[in-house]
Design brief:
The chain is an all-beta fold. It contains no helices and 2 strands.
Length: about 55
């Protein structure tokens, strides 16, 4: 079983005006604060590696 990443808010980032011609519907608004996230991948389970001699 594989679990999804777990993400938690980690801070804020201030939006900047994009260069001319590089903006689409997903642009940041200049001066608006956006939440940043730190994500962690969950381990499925600890395991030991068996070495055959």
């Amino acid at each position: 079983m594989v679990e999804a990443d777990t993400c938690k808010p980690s801070g804020k980032l201030r939006g900047k005006k994009p260069p001319p011609g590089q903006c689409d519907s997903n642009c940041c608004v200049e001066g608006k604060f956006y939440t940043t996230y730190k994500c962690f991948t969950a381990c499925v389970e600890p395991y030991k590696r068996k070495i055959d001699n």
